[in-house]
Each structure stands twice: as structure tokens, then as C-alpha cells.
Amino acid sequence: MEKVALLKCTGYEVDQIERKLREGFELLGGQAFLRELIPADSKVLLKPNFLSVVEKGSPIITHYAVFEAVVRIVKEYSDNISFGDSPGQEDTRKAAEKSGFMEIADKYGVKFADFNQAVHCELDKPLMYKYWDIAKAPHEADVVITLPKLKTHAMMYYTGAVKNQFGCIPGGQKAGWHTKLPDSASFAKMLLDLNSLVKTSFAILDGIVAMEGNGPRNGTPRQMDTLIMGKSVTAVDSTAVRLIGYENVLSIPVLKAAQDSKWGTVLPEEIEVLGESIENMKSRDFKLSRNAKVVNFLTPGLTSLVSSLTAPDPVLVEEKCIGCKKCDEACPEKSKVISFIKHDGKIIPKWNYSKCIRCFCCQELCPKGAIVTRDKALARVLGLNRR
Q1: Distances from the Cα of 230 to the Cαs of 4, 5, 75, 100, 240, in angstroms?
Q2: Does an H or E element contain 311, and which?
Q3: Closest by alpha carbon to 91, among 64, 130, 52?
Q4: 251 and 337 share a domain?
């Protein structure tokens, strides 16, 4: 039985978060658990979610107060702590500085890790890929603690502990993975391989303020008062998706991939939730990015085909568009998918949906929230439209 600590934390006051995290560690085994997690003199890497360069306290990224509370606890077990991430298009150091992380790191003697330096490595018994180029810092760390943000995600339905490790791939290489793996099922297996390669040790999910709707960048902040922590990244994610309304956890691509491959603990009956109860903490009206309904046909191939035919489309909210062309920069398929036309006196993007791979990088990285997802008619007929 995998154990996960579910904690109620009502705000981003660092002392309160620290108290709650210490409560969580006590529930999981206290000092003995922490000493096993962080052996003496371990090289510890903290991996927050830096999706973009944003202001301090933005709901787009892991909150700086969660980072500080974690640093305070980890410093009792190791003085060799670093942190880092690799956003898809923007500079990690600028993201760390603007969001307040660098100030905290300097205060506690935590080193900044540059994720742009990659190493070539090999994974035994992969689900998808044996050979990789990943950031050197997480590859060389003894202990990797991921600090994700609870958010919706157009491609993967939800982003949390497993998906956060995609930041361990240097920014410029991320688009290539979307091109190679345009469907969510294959992408999910890749994420599991990546977590195996990085050897993610522990997850602390920041859901104090989550993001619903048009996530992971342009959704709506949603107060959830939640911290979730555990050694199993899939168990943490399974607990999180139940809180936001996914009763069938296998409707989440990465959790289905983990269950099918026996990669990690996923099913609710195999997870002991300590602390608060899911029933008391769950939201009844969280705005999801994709519906929880799973449709299985006679063959995996037919199921995959129907899934591709019912995946939503990225569409433009024209009044919000500023013509910055960030969508084209983010698109792994570049000009094959997005072209620009003049309409009502401004330049706006136009999609070639026959070439679009539905990775939603354009929607994810649009700085103005001008791109949303729209369900296809077939999805509505099959009852797969969003909630």
C-alpha cells in the first residue's frame, strides 16, 4: 500500500506551509522516513515548475513560499541543495529571479542549477526510449524532489508530479518530443521513462491555489487549500485528480500508462491517503480541461484513431490576440500548422488542422490567453465534451 499525505493549507504564509509539510512527513514516517529519503551529504535537487517568466506569487508556477518551506526542512539533512528547471522558451534564471526563488536560494545557500547543460544517457528497460539527452543537474543528483503545481492541461488533461519532470529536458529539445509523440498515450509513456531516468525521489504538490479551465498557463486560479506529498509520483497525481473531479483515474493518460505498464501505484484502493480525506477536500465544480469519460473500442488501433479524431482543436480568441507570433515559435511543426493572415487590421494566426498534432504548445505558451481549446462535433456526439 503506497502512502500519500493530503494536507489542508489555507495560504502561502511560509511558516504555515512549513508546519504542514512537517505534519506530512510525520504521517509518512517522521525522522526515519526523512533520513532514508535524504541520506547524509546527499546532493539534493529541488525541481519547481517554471512554465514561464512571471511575477512573484503567480499561479502559473510553483509558489516561492512552498519552495522556501521545503528548503528549510531539507537543509536539516543536507547542505548540498540546488534547484532548477527548463521552461520551453524562456530563460530559467530570469524566471527564478522574477518569481522570488533566487532571493530565497541566496538566503539559504541553495545553488542555481543550469538545466541547459545536457548529458547523453541510457535507460534500462524503457517503455518508449532507451537513449536520452537530459539536463545534467537532475541526472547527477542523489535525490530529486519535484515541486509541481496542480493545473489543468489541454493535452494531458492534468499536470502535476509526473509531468513536472518534462522540465528536465533542456528547453530547445522539448518541441522535438512533441513531434515524435503527438498522442497523449505515447507522450505519457515517455514521461514515465523520464521519471525513471531522473529517479524522482519525492513529490510535494502545490495545490494551495490551483489552476482550472484553460491551463496550464491561461486558466483561472482556484483556491484548493491543498498540499499533497509522497514518494510515488503516480500516487500523488492519482490523489490530486480525484480532488478535482476525475473519479476514474485511468482517464488521465499518464496514470493509465502507469497502470498498464505496472510502472507505479495508481488505483485508489492501493493508496493510503493520510491526513485529510479526499471526500472533505475535493472540489465539486472544478473546471476541467478535458472530460473524464474513457471510450474503448474493439482494438487499441481503433481506440487510438477515435481519440485522435475527437481531440479538441486550438482556436483563437481574436480580441485577446496581440500578434506576437509566440504560438508559431512554440509549435513543434512550425509553418506546417500555423500561418498568419490579416484580419480587421491586425495579423492573427490561422491553423491547418489537418497538420496539427494537438500538443497545444501554442495554447500553453500564449502570453495573453488568446488560444483556447474547442471540442469537435464527434466528441460531443460520443459524450466526450468537456465538463
Answers
A1: 5, 6, 19, 25, 12
A2: none
A3: 52
A4: no
DSSP state of 124: S
Mark whether 133 and 105 lie in a shared domain. yes
Q: What would the pLDDT profile of 321-361 be if each residue is shown by its tens digit?
A: 999 999 998 899 877 999 999 988 899 999 999 999 989 99
In degrees and rounded to multiples of 5, residue 182 shows phi and psi of -75, -15
CA angle 85, 88, 92 (to 5 degrees): 40
**Amino acid occupying residue 212:** E
Mean pLDDT over 219-246 rounds to 98
User: Tens of pLDDT along 53-90?
Assistant: 999 999 999 999 999 999 999 999 999 999 999 987 77
Domain count, the chain: 2
Reported residue count of the chain is: 387
Please report the DSSP string for 71-128 in residue order: HHHHTTT-S-EEE----SSS-HHHHHHHTTHHHHHHHHTPEEP-TTSEEEEE-SS-SS
| Three-class SS state of 248 | coil
Residues 52, 171, single domain; the answer is yes
For residues 330-356, one letter each, b for 16 or more C-beta atoms within 10 angstroms of the residue's C-beta and e for the rest, the string is bbbbeeebbeeeeeeeeebbebeeeeb
Looking at the DSSP bridge assignments, the partners of residue 8 are: 226
Regarding whether 357 and 258 lie in a shared domain, the answer is: no
Which cell numbers in the block locate residue 316? 483563437
Residue 167 near residue 149 (C-beta atoms within 8 A) = no
In a domain, 366, yes or no: yes
CB of 109 within 8 A of CB of 190? no
Same domain, 251 and 312: no
Strand-pairing partners, residue 111, are 82
Residue 271's nearest CA partner among 313, 305, 239 is 239
Domain span at 245: 2-281
Residues 214, 349 share a domain? no
- Contact criterion met (CB below 8 Å) for 53 and 95: yes
Q: Which CATH number fits the domain that encloses residue 306?
A: 3.30.70.20
Return the DSSP state at 219: S
Radius of gyration of the chain (CA): 20
Domain-located, residue 292: no
pLDDT tens-place string over residues 127-157: 999 999 999 999 999 999 999 999 999 999 9
